[in-house]
């Protein structure tokens, strides 16, 4: 199956190419970048030298010759390509935020008009696998909402409040340098940002609601001086207390058939480079602390996008993704 990656010179585009090298049925035949047009992919993604010989091209959906596409471009750019891909019948996973929310919530959260809106399944397979199966366009979740929602899902319905406290690696900010992600701000440092107003809160609330929860959700992200990974501590405040045994059973039951969710003490090093989400949970009666760890570029983006492609195309769900994290 021929794959096109729109926005292939960025961090998620690079990881899509790297991961798809391992896929048994997919081959990347088109990788776009406007700024790197004509250059070999491996001259930008140097980790891929001698592993791919394709060159960057300009995005041109009208003449695109591919069976499947990934949109790995910033939000608001994705909506410029999505309609055309749909019209051309090219199945697509969009890694941006453009199709994750309802139109009105998207517009109020992102402060822009959505010029090409249609509904798409929210691509968190552990919650939405059945609707992803029949879809031709899937909205890949945000990195923070992936780790946060998986951490709280087994208890969401029983909670009155959920507080997500996340620490993220810097690659979450994309490849372009900025004041926030420059070395002097990040190295040897730890800061909170968008303390009460991060745009991913809308996704977390949407998914809590989907799980039948009426809990109030809150979220504060922190920038950590590492390249990859998100560790989320979810404080789940319950109406009625649960024992440690009861809580563990709820998590085991919920995730017993989920290959990419592992119940063990989570750490960034324990999932780095892989599509796993590791979750640990501890009860303090009416306060349950659930901690999750993901690699933001893999389960938080490109790996989950391939997991969604596998489900959409009827492939083995773990194809291209069945490998261990890099540790130490
Ligand atoms: N980084 C992460 O951890 C995560 C990212 N995401 C989302 O995935 C998407 C990609 O993220 P990331 O790889 O980090 O972003 P980067 O900024 O690293 O890369 C963006 C890519 O999109 C291309 N691009 C930018 N603007 C346009 C445009 N208007 N039209 C066509 N191509 C464009 C760029 O190349 P060029 O400008 O040369 O064309 C580049 O290849 C974003 O929507 C991001 O929010 C989601 C989850 C996690
Ligand atoms: C460190 C950092 O800046 N992280 C980004 C993560 C967002 C992201 O990548 O998710 P989207 O797909 O919704 O853009 C942020 O906090 O905005």
From TrEMBL:
The active site is at 143. It comes from the Archaea. Keywords: Amino-acid biosynthesis, Arginine biosynthesis, Cytoplasm, NADP, Oxidoreductase. It is found in: Cytoplasm. GO terms for biological process: L-arginine biosynthetic process. Its EC number is 1.2.1.38. It is an enzyme of class 1 (oxidoreductase). GO terms for cellular component: cytoplasm. It catalyses: N-acetyl-L-glutamate 5-semialdehyde + phosphate + NADP(+) = N-acetyl-L-glutamyl 5-phosphate + NADPH + H(+). Pathway: Amino-acid biosynthesis; L-arginine biosynthesis; N(2)-acetyl-L-ornithine from L-glutamate: step 3/4. Its main location: cytoplasm. GO terms for molecular function: N-acetyl-gamma-glutamyl-phosphate reductase activity; NAD binding; NADP+ binding. This is N-acetyl-gamma-glutamyl-phosphate reductase. It comes from Methanochimaera problematica. The gene is argC.
């Amino acid at each position: 199956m021929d794959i096109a990656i729109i926005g292939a010179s960025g961090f998620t585009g690079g990881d899509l190419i790297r991961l798809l090298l391992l896929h048994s049925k997919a081959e990347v035949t088109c990788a776009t970048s406007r700024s790197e047009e004509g250059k070999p992919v491996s001259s930008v993604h140097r980790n891929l030298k001698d592993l791919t010989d394709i060159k960057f091209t300009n995005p041109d959906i009208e003449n695109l010759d591919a069976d499947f596409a990934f949109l790995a471009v910033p939000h608001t750019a994705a909506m410029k390509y999505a309609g055309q891909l749909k019209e051309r019948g090219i199945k697509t996973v969009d890694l941006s935020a453009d199709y994750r929310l309802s139109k009105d919530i998207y517009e109020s959260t992102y402060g822009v008009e959505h010029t090409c809106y249609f509904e798409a399944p929210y691509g968190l397979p552990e919650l939405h696998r059945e609707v992803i199966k029949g879809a031709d366009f899937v909205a890949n979740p945000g990195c923070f909402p992936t780790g946060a929602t998986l951490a709280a899902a087994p208890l969401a319905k029983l909670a009155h409040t959920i507080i997500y406290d996340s620490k993220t690696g810097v690659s979450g900010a994309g490849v372009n340098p900025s004041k926030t992600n420059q070395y002097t701000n990040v190295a040897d440092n730890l800061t909170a940002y968008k303390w009460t107003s991060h745009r991913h809160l809308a996704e977390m609330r949407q998914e809590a609601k989907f799980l039948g929860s009426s809990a109030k959700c809150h979220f504060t992200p922190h920038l950590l001086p590492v390249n990859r990974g998100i560790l989320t501590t979810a404080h789940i405040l319950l109406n009625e207390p649960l024992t440690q045994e009861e809580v563990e059973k709820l998590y085991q039951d919920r995730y017993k058939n989920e290959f990419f969710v592992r119940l063990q003490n989570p750490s960034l090093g324990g999932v780095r480079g892989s599509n796993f989400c590791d979750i640990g949970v501890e009860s303090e009666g009416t306060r349950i602390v659930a901690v999750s760890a993901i690699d933001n570029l893999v389960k938080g983006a490109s790996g989950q996008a391939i997991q969604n492609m596998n489900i959409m195309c009827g492939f083995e769900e773990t194809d291209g993704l069945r490998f261990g994290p890099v540790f130490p």
